[in-house]
């Protein structure tokens, strides 16, 4: 196998790994934001029901 072919395979592998990592981070941030938003909505519901 040529060195250039090996280098291209490594490059594609690293790019794929970076893409998977970025998607994983994006999914984690989305879940965290949704959880925080759900917590805020629950807090507002408790606040409004206490005001009645």
What distance lies between the first and last C-alpha atoms, to the nearest angstrom? 76 Å
What share of residues are in beta strands? under 5%
The whole-number mean of residue pLDDT values reads: 83
User: In DSSP terms, counting alpha (H) and pi (I) runs of 4 or more, how many helices?
Assistant: 1
Uncertain spans: none
Estimate the helix proportion, in percent: over 70%
Largest sheet: none
Shape: rod-shaped
Total beta strand runs: 0
Specify Rg, calculated over alpha carbons. 23 Å
Instruction: List SSEs in N-to-C order.
Output: H
- Helix-and-strand structural type: mainly alpha
Textual characterization of the structure:
By secondary structure, the chain is mostly helical. The chain is 94% helix and 0% strand. It has one helix at 3-51. It is rod-shaped and about 75 Å long. 0% of the residues are buried. The model has no long low-confidence stretch (mean pLDDT 83).
């Amino acid at each position: 196998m040529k060195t250039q072919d090996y280098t291209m395979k490594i490059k594609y592998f690293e790019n794929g790994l970076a893409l998977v990592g970025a998607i994983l981070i994006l999914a984690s941030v989305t879940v965290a934001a949704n959880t925080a938003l759900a917590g805020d909505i629950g807090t507002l519901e408790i606040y409004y029901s206490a005001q009645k």
